[in-house]
Design brief:
The chain has about 675 residues and is an alpha+beta fold. It folds into three domains: about 110 residues, Protein-arginine deiminase, N-terminal domain (Immunoglobulin-like, Sandwich), CATH 2.60.40; about 170 residues, Protein-arginine deiminase, central domain (Immunoglobulin-like, Sandwich); about 350 residues, L-arginine/glycine Amidinotransferase, Chain A (5-stranded Propeller). Helices cover about 15% and strands about 35% of the residues. Strands 2, 4, 7, 9, 10, 12, 14, 15 and 17 form a nine-stranded mixed sheet that branches. The protein is elongated and about 120 Å long. This is Protein-arginine deiminase.
């Protein structure tokens, strides 16, 4: 970006000016004109291109092609494309003429020193065949887009340091540099120019709160060489003149996009003329680069699993063993949070959501810590935050949260196309209330954060009818080999009643639910006949079905789904304090590890030696190439109003699609 650069010439003495390679300088020849001037000629030394612009309609012409009639509307433009070797080693000469005089009336000379200055970063423009016309002052989305990308450096590469890497003004270890983006200042021109000119790197106070810059001022293999020069309370930095033509800077993000912050950050370098001791330095040229802070991205259950998390508590040994076996089959790492750390809080899905951030040079997993703050509240920060594993959280100032702020109420769909728009990273799904109602909603700071990431636009579903109030209580996604590459599973009271009616017609009305539930006197068996004759249960599940059907239509519209993309999973609900809870273990609240599914064991009616609910689920999912494992979570989870998915968490492989290639 060039400032409006106008240089005035004088007849009394030669004028000197600094120009920047490739940047136009306007020469004002009208301030001092000999009397009787009717025409003028203008010439430059080799390497100086001079143009005259008569008017907007005619464009510009090379100045050395003819003598020009003197007209104050004419604009003389000078361009140099190569830096000077010495001060004032090029010049422009203007001669003033009269038709009544054979010789010029006077001459004016403008001596020029050209310097090449550029502030650059990785503009990430692989999709563009011609990079020369990229405007560094802009950040453009899409496969033909461009612009620098910053990671929020929210991991802790030095385990001995007590804070995240971007929470202080030091480079603690060289590995930390891998999370930063490189910015390069290149200068070419006579060294003597900088005896009375200076380069200043600067940003706005707003942007300084959201990113910071380190200047390499010594050997790059020493942490002490990285000087903190911009960020926090530092908004400008005079770049010292070392003996090279290139200065390297490392830039890190401090804040994720959020309410009031689009994610765009600008840095500028300005060449200042400081030659006059009586005046403040005057700007000659400014170059600018724009970065976008990489968004936090969620991963859907259809992506490849890498690591499974589960808590060990006093009564879930068999559950942990079953999850471990499923992780082994899926080829996943298993991390168990011991009871000493979880303090008997088993709801690890509610405590955190595992996602990632990505730049062309680095992908970094980042845990989003929920504001629920149960007994597991220290686990994400103390156990997951570390080298190459970042951390972010959002909490309301008044700390007022509801059950909807647990992250069982935060899911994301696989990639979809809806209403003609592509969502290559899927769409976030959060639960709330009906439009216009006054029920529970996710706290504003979390909603603001999720919306600000832009790349997975959230859809708010209706969950206030549920006692716990989480979207994972009635939906999940599993991979599929055909169609859109996935199926959405919805809990369905209607499908359950239909299944039980079929079994009763076949003479199995006396078959019992809850047979085989171990060590819990609170659970009584109930037959299919009793279920189908319970009018209160039937009527309540009609209400539940209407709530799920409302969400079904929202999901079909917002995710572009057809009925063939949805599988109805038999499920009944009961009421407690006018809110819904699973009547038997909630089958859609499952752990998805590739083709291996860990499904809550429903303890359904046993017919011909098999649970008819399990058999129905197998018949729906196994044709997709999925393997169903039913895990007994009845006592340690179901009786506490949660299931398998609530008690586990998964870190997954990032999308192959790069977020900057989409158009939000």
């Amino acid at each position: 970006m060039s400032l409006q650069r106008i240089v005035r010439v004088s007849l009394e003495h030669p004028t000197s000016a600094v120009c920047v390679a490739g940047v136009e300088t306007v020469v004002d020849i009208y301030g001092s004109v000999p009397e009787g001037t009717e025409m003028f000629e203008v010439y430059g030394t080799p390497g100086v291109d001079i143009y005259v612009s008569p008017n907007m309609e005619r464009g510009r012409e090379r100045a050395d092609t003819r003598r020009w009639r003197f007209d104050a509307t004419l604009e003389i433009i000078v361009v140099m494309n190569s830096p000077s070797n010495d001060l004032n080693d090029s010049h422009v000469q203007i001669s003033y003429h009269s038709s009544h005089k054979p010789l010029p009336l006077a001459y004016a000379v403008l001596y020029l020193t050209c310097v090449d200055i550029s502030l650059d970063c990785d503009l990430n423009c692989e999709g563009r065949q011609d990079r020369t016309f990229v405007d560094k002052r802009q950040w453009v989305w899409g496969p033909r887009g461009y612009g620098g990308i910053l990671l929020v450096n929210c991991d802790r590469d030095d385990p001995s340091c007590g804070v995240q890497d971007n929470c202080d003004e030091h480079v603690r270890c060289l590995q930390d540099l891998e999370d930063m983006s490189v910015m390069v200042l290149r200068t070419q021109g006579p060294a003597a120019l900088f005896d009375d000119h200076k380069l200043v790197l600067h940003t706005s106070s707003y942007d300084a709160e959201r990113a910071q810059v380190f200047h390499v001022c010594g050997p790059e293999d020493m942490c002490e060489a990285y000087r903190h020069v911009l960020g926090q309370d530092k908004v400008s930095y005079e770049v010292p003149r070392f003996h090279g033509d290139e200065e390297r800077f490392f830039v890190e993000g401090l804040s994720f996009p959020d309410a009031g912050f689009t994610g765009l950050i600008s840095f500028h370098v300005t060449l200042l003329d400081d030659s006059n001791e009586d005046f403040s330095a005057s700007p000659i040229f400014t170059d600018t680069v724009v970065f976008r802070v990489a968004p936090w991205i969620m991963t859907p259950s259809t992506l490849l699993p890498l690591e499974v998390y589960v808590c060990r508590v006093r009564n879930n040994t068999c559950f942990v063993d079953a999850v471990a076996e499923l992780a082994r089959k899926a080829g996943c790492k298993l991390t168990i949070c011991p009871q000493a750390e979880n303090r008997n809080d088993r709801w690890i899905q509610d405590e955190m959501e595992l996602g990632y951030v990505q730049a062309p040079h680095k992908t970094l997993p980042v845990v989003f810590d929920s504001p629920r703050n149960g007994e597991l509240q220290d686990f994400p920060y103390k156990r997951i935050l570390g080298p190459d594993f970042g951390y972010v959280t959002r909490e309301p100032r008044d700390r007022s949260v509801s059950g909807l702020d647990s992250f069982g109420n935060l899911e994301v769909s696989p990639p979809v196309v809806a209403n003609g728009k592509e969502y290559p990273l899927g769409r976030i799904l959060i639960g709330g209330n009906l439009p216009g109602s006054s029920g529970r909603r996710v706290t504003q700071v979390v909603r603001d954060f999720l919306h600000a990431q832009k790349v997975q636009p959230p859809v708010e579903l209706f969950v206030d009818w549920l006692a716990v109030g989480h979207v994972d209580e009635f939906l999940s996604f599993v991979p599929a080999p055909d169609g859109k590459g996935f199926r959405m599973l919805l809990a369905s009271p209607g499908a359950c009643f239909k299944l039980f009616q079929e079994k009763r017609k076949c003479g199995h009305g006396r078959a019992l639910l809850f047979q085989g539930v171990v060590d819990d006197e609170r659970v009584r068996t109930i037959s299919i006949n009793q279920v189908l004759s319970n009018k209160d249960l039937i009527n309540y599940n009609k209400f539940v079905q209407s709530c799920i059907d409302w969400n079904r239509e929202v999901l079909k519209r917002e995710l572009g789904l057809a009925e063939c993309d949805i599988i109805d999973i038999p499920q009944l609900f009961k009421t407690e304090r006018k809110k819904a809870m699973a009547f038997f273990p909630d089958l859609v609240n499952m752990l998805v590890l590739g083709k291996h599914l860990g499904i809550p064991k429903p303890f359904g009616p046993i017919i011909d030696g098999r649970c008819c609910l399990e058999e129905k689920v197998r018949s729906l999912l196994e044709p997709l190439g999925l393997h169903c494992t039913f895990i007994d979570d009845f006592t340690p989870y179901h009786m506490l109003h949660g299931e398998v998915h609530c008690g586990t968490n998964v870190r997954r492989k990032p999308f192959s699609f790069k977020w900057w290639n989409m158009v939000p």
